[in-house]
Amino acid sequence: MDLERLLILSAILFCIGLYGTMARRNAITVLMSLELMFNAVNVAMVAFAKYIVPTGVQDHLGRLLTGQMFVVFIITVAAAEIALGLAIVIALYRNRETVDITEASLMRR
Fold it and tell me: Which of 103, 85, 91 is nearest to 28 (CA)?
């Protein structure tokens, strides 16, 4: 695949994730849509790293690993976001017995 097709794939994945984030009210669906958006950015980063040659960290074979390093950072942030998001969803469910995100503003007692 060439760079253009990978970026189109990334844009489609990002748009699906954006639609899922904006249109859904279920907190679990919103979190899954956010993960889809993160993965779309990961696809774009790896595509840019493969087809555009920046100066960066090289492995023992001389390949540049700039995009892959960004992907590892994004995966770490996504894991932290999911852990925090699931904690909020569990707290919301325990208090209101629903996972509807419109009820999140009512978490105060």
Answer: 85
Give CA separation, 96 vs 26, 37, 71, 87, 105, in Å.
13, 28, 36, 14, 11
Q: Output 95 or 47, whichever has higher pLDDT.
A: 47
Give me the mean pLDDT over the 19-37 stretch: 90
CB 99 within 8 A of CB 93: yes
Which amino acid, 34?
L
Domain residues for the domain of 94 are 3-106
Q: pTM for this one?
A: 0.76
DSSP state of 60: T
Q: CB under 8 Å to 83, separation ≥6 — which residues?
A: none
CATH number of residue 101's parent domain? 1.10.287.3510
Given a contact cutoff of 8 angstroms between Cβ atoms, the answer to whether 24 and 64 are in contact is no
